[in-house]
Amino acid sequence: MKKKILVANRGEIAIRLIRAIHELGCTAVAVYEKTDDKSRHIRLADEAILLGDGPRVDYLNIAKVIAAAKKSGAEAIHPGYGFLAENPDFAKACEDAGIIFIGPSSKVIADLGNKVVARSIMAEAGIPMVPGTEDLPPGNEGFKRAKKFGREYGYPVMLKATCGGGGRGIRCIDDEVQLVEEIPAARAEALAAFNDDSVYLEKVVLKPKHVEVQVIADKTGKTLHLGTRDCSIQRRNQKLIEIAPSRVANPELLEEICQTAVRAAKAANYFNAGTVEFLIDHDFNYYFMEINTRIQVEHTVTEMITGIDIVRNQIKLAFGYELSFGQSDVQIRGHAIEMRINAEDPKNNFMPEGGKQVRVYRSTGGFGVRLDGFVYQGYDIPEVYDSLLVKLTVHGFTWDETVERVKRCLKDFAIVGPKTTIPFYLNIADDPDFISGDFNTSYLDTHPHLFHYDEEIGEAGKLARLIAEIHHCGENPFAS
Ligand code: ADP
Ligand code: ADP
Ligand code: MG
Question: N or C: which end of the chain has fewer CB within 10 A?
Fold first, then answer.
């Protein structure tokens, strides 16, 4: 394929995309903001176009990204995740400009990006889901309906921004007084974050597991699943660690969920790669939550256990290729764990550590280890972007081997400068409940001991102490 593809993103996912583009024999065009001009994706691409001064406004500027694509002669745009990835106006602007948007159509993105519309499509297709309301109407009528729902289904209830995403705009409400209080606040927050003040209610699934299914579909309607991922280990409804396949000890249930995901994708006329998210309760009931219409951060675990390059397939499908394999070709081998190594301080409510310099970066490696990152020694972490530095994904033949491998990697991964989630993850990898699979989305709240650890472990600890010593003598540790 001799194509030119623009990558409308930054950080680790931009690099992931550029690698796939190069492996396909295509040319990659990067875009960037001035505030992000040290990012490695800029140098890895074949060309790079400055969008503007930033921060965060130019990566989100549809007209500027389309203009960059036209200027460079790119035939397609891959949006990655975040930024414009789930913006139907952006997909539409690509369609109108005759540029291939690597993802589903703008119509599908618009339908599925609205949680209430998505739920109605799924309800029609008979997909199981938790009870919920439509959008709450404005004014008194909204409060009335909300109270009625609370009385009918009992508390707690989930108050969600209809157009929300990224774990934001979700509030767990314990009683009617709080419900009345929080609806206006939730609306204001939703308007500011998602440019839409619609909110609705869902019944809460108590202590659920978050299990999702990777699906992939070509333009003929052939729709396959690539198995399950468990993403229950979250903070503030955002994922930290993901596992594939799910370790729920009920293979028939997991198979049924995969089949349901394929039905859900077909019901939405889904094209390209997507993720169908579910919650599973204590009694093994499962409920549709949403479909993410893009590549997911945690796609790496699925790639490791299936051997299928999802991004490569996304690109080929967008250029009109049909899926070259069938469901029976998708074989799950072993286990994979992804840990999102963020510049954050878990002990301080996961406060981002942006603004610091990566003074030492010594990555791990070895058998069954995959790294998707973009930072390097000497990199100043901008404060204005998200805190993900590198994703550590390991693959193992057995679960125990996979856990041992991830522990070994965490110990020999040295990042000095910002605090990171590495030492915290080592506690998780050592935790009997994590190892046995006995965890749900409340895991961090119910395991406070995970937050007790030494900041500097293994290699990173030794290096940090060494740097401090040299620094004390007034020498530059990186002079030579
Ligand atoms: P994923 O669903 O891909 O596993 P997350 O659940 O962590 O990833 O985040 C969902 C989406 O929201 C991603 O596209 C991510 O880039 C985006 N996102 C997460 N946090 C933020 C944020 N603070 N601001 C903007 N977008 C965000
Ligand atoms: P987003 O679009 O921000 O990813 P989701 O609807 O996918 O929002 O929900 C994100 C997370 O919030 C889930 O993984 C889960 O932990 C929690 N959550 C969402 N809905 C419910 C619910 N009805 N009951 C319990 N937890 C929920
Ligand atoms: Mg979600």
Answer: C
